Amino acid sequence: MTYKELLQQLQQLTEEQLNQDVCICDSKFDCGDDTDAEYYQHGVEFVFATEECDVLDIDHPIIRF
Fold this sequence. Notes:
The protein is about 20% helix and about 20% strand. It has helices at about 5-10, 15-20, and strands at about 25, 40, 45-50, 60-65. The protein is globular and about 35 Å long.
């Protein structure tokens, strides 16, 4: 998913949904089944890669937890 695709999805959310905390579901778990899913809401940040990151270009946007 690109950030452009993410933005398109976010623009379809209701005002109520937009006011909720960001939640990330670990993809190695089946997020359709709440018993096995791992969700992250605490500590989710939107940051940008710095020169210390040797994998991404500088200023690449990152959603981390």
